[in-house]
Amino acid sequence: MPRSEPIKAVRGVRDLLPRDRPLWRATERAAAEVAMRFGYQEIVTPIIEHVELIERVGEDTDAVSKELYRFEDRGGRKLALRPEATAGVVRAYFEGGLNQGPQPLRLYLVGPMFRYDRPQKGRYRQFYQLDVEAIGSASPALDAEVIEIAAGWLHESGISALALQLNSIGDDVCRPAYLERLKDYYRPLKGRLHADSQLRLERNPLRLLDSKFAQDQPFKVDAPRITDHLCEPCADAWAHVRRLIDAAGIEYVHNPYLVRGLDYYTRTVFEFYPAGASGQQDALAAGGRYDGLAEAEGWPSTPAVGFAGGFDRVVDVMAASGVEVIAAAAADVVVLADGGQEIAAAEVARICRRVRSVAVDYEAKSLAAKMRSANKLGARWVVMLSAEEAPRRVARLRDMASGEQAEVSWDEVPERLA
Ligand code: AMP
Description:
- The structure is a single chain.
- This protein is α+β, with helices and mostly antiparallel strands.
- It is 33% helix and 21% strand.
- It contains 13 helices and 16 strands.
- Helix 1 (21-37) crosses helix 10 and helix 5 packs parallel to helix 8 (232-247).
- The longest helix has 17 residues, at 21-37.
- It is elongated.
- Adenosine monophosphate (AMP) is lined by residues 84, 115, 117, 123-124, 127, 129, 282-286, 308-310, 312-313.
């Protein structure tokens, strides 16, 4: 029985159609080129991971558990679709023995991520990230390096007006004392904070600083700033990172309210926005140092830094800023075969493919109709083949721009298309 309704895509996900791909391809290419120029190698990790890998390292975040796509496979394993790449990349770094060779390991990954978020413009349940990670070094020079890669990628994607926000959130030496200060500051104000923030006050006070609730905003300005309370190594690193970013000619603003909610994040945090973006707009890329993650996953303690950039948002900003990428035609050449000439047409196409992309129009349509289709496809040449010509191994080659047409032997066609 025919279905009454065709089956549509799953809520919150979307197709990237051929007409969408040129902009995507441009930014994907920029990502790989910039990463490789800095000596980063590509890694591919699975989309499915054990739920524990994601939840162990994401415990405590409201977001991670709520947004996680989790399922049981036929063997009863509890699995998740990865919501981000870092946990898997760190796992692969150890499992693949990448911790054995020269350090740091410089890795990049491009692929889909999944979050069961409320779908809206710019926020999808399947979205795509560039993930750049330098694992195995605590040097602040690498914090600056990944920031330079993010900036380079966005620039080469045609987004030149950028705003970089930067902060340090200390480490497990200086952060505990700072968090006590922060709690001391907020406790007398508790009754005036949003209900969610009241809960955070004891559990995750750092998150009060990036609260989006209107009623929390007035209290931020007088809150103690962690950059005033860093231990000496963290203060040195903070100064060092900023000097390096200055030297790279990258502008930034210090945003004392930029934080991460998980303990394994340390020191540098940063986010890139399109210049002039309102505070509510989501970042194009976000990253920082996560010296505690490897240990949280059960591996030896290993310092690392990286960022994740969102292709979906980058492509939106590219389109909105008028970045144009000339879309190549589906095929440079279209071979138009008369009825019954499929074998000959396929052979001519094979010859032409040595030098050009070639599609064959096998449809039972008039020559004029095929010519219109080839024109719409953007073909630069058309090769016409009739039942009379095929046995003589000749065809008519038409230059679509000039309209010039000539009889050519099959083997000469490639020269004419060069
Ligand atoms: P995060 O891993 O949350 O720090 O996000 C890093 C980047 O990924 C963000 O700056 C966004 O550009 C992008 N991103 C995160 N979540 C989504 C989503 N649901 N849809 C589209 N892009 C996203």
